[in-house]
Amino acid sequence: MRRIAAVLLLLVAAGGAQAGESARLQARPLYVEDFERTPLGKLPPGVLDNSGWTGSTVPMAVVDSGDRRYGKVVECRVSGYCQIVLGQVALKQGRLYRVTADIASRGAQTVTLILRHGPSPYTIYVSSIEKTNEEMHRFSFVGRAVNSADPVLLMLLMNGHTTLQIDNIRIEEVTGALPAGA
pTM score, two decimals? Predict the structure, then answer.
């Protein structure tokens, strides 16, 4: 059974208001992965398929995206349920965190990005449901940790049949003035 941290404030989702948000928030990077240092065909430490409990596996490897703006990306071949770990950090109670990732998929898909602490009962600290397609798109959202926890995993969840490409993953602690209406 999953417990969802109730007092988490979701401020910015799906890339909206990033320009104005950036002017008000200062960021301290906690986790950054762009896959450029990882050899083709491999995965960096901490990036892994976590779908095995469903009886499925998601083949994953760093590949050349063919787009010089992105260079190397992690490619995931999804055929059913997908739950992958993209990194991990420690969260401190009351602090704000921003998660950013560039994601593309073959065909329109829906993916969920979460910051989750385990083991069971799993606590989801922040989540964002995103729509993807063939065009690489930057997704960014901000949330407040209601508890301190370590480790907290950045995970991508989806159910479908596609190839995902993921790049430029960042988890940052942010401070400063919040966006209007937050």
Answer: 0.84
